[in-house]
Backbone:
């Protein structure tokens, strides 16, 4: 089994990945709960004529994970899509029995299946993690019909990895 695909991540897809990566963790979920509780406290303080400092603190805490963080991630995805060489040109991926070969212009890399830690998919992207800090992202939209073949290859060869493909 072998699959060759070419993929370029858009700012929208990158933003989707950042949101997933941020809010699917325990800390992301805890941040949302804290912000919701702070919002409820802010409303309660407004109804009971609480002091101004408490209202400001609760409002800031409520906005932190519900508004500020998503806006920050959006700006980061836009900046990366425009300025990062890794997102400027498409990346060619070759998936086969020995691993994943990547090439982008003159740059080339190879990762054996044993190096793959996790493979996840969302509505817009497929992310292949080779360690906790490095993930290769493929546009799910560009894969089209090749998605099912990629799924078969990953499940067959990435036996040590956590695979969450929908």
Residues:
């Amino acid at each position: 089994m072998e699959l060759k695909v070419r993929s370029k991540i858009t700012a929208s897809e990158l933003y989707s990945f950042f949101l997933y990566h941020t809010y699917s963790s325990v800390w992301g979920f805890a941040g949302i709960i804290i912000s919701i509780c702070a919002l409820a406290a802010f409303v309660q303080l407004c109804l009971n004529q609480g002091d101004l400092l408490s209202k400001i603190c609760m409002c800031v805490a409520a906005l932190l994970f519900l508004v500020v963080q998503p806006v920050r991630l959006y700006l980061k995805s836009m900046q990366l899509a425009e300025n990062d060489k890794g997102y400027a040109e498409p990346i060619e991926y070759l998936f086969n029995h020995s691993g994943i070969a990547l090439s982008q212009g003159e740059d080339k890399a190879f990762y054996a299946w044993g190096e793959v830690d996790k493979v996840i998919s969302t509505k817009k992207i497929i992310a292949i993690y080779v360690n906790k800090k490095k993930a290769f992202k493929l546009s799910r939209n560009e894969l089209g019909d090749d998605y099912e073949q990629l799924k078969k290859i990953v499940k067959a060869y990435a036996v040590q990895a956590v695979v969450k493909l929908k």
Notes: The first strand starts at residue 3 and ends at 7. The CA atoms of residues 46 and 55 lie 7 Å apart. The beta strands are 3-7, 91-96, 99-104, 107-112, 118-121, 125-129, 135-139, 162-164. The chain has six helices and eight strands.
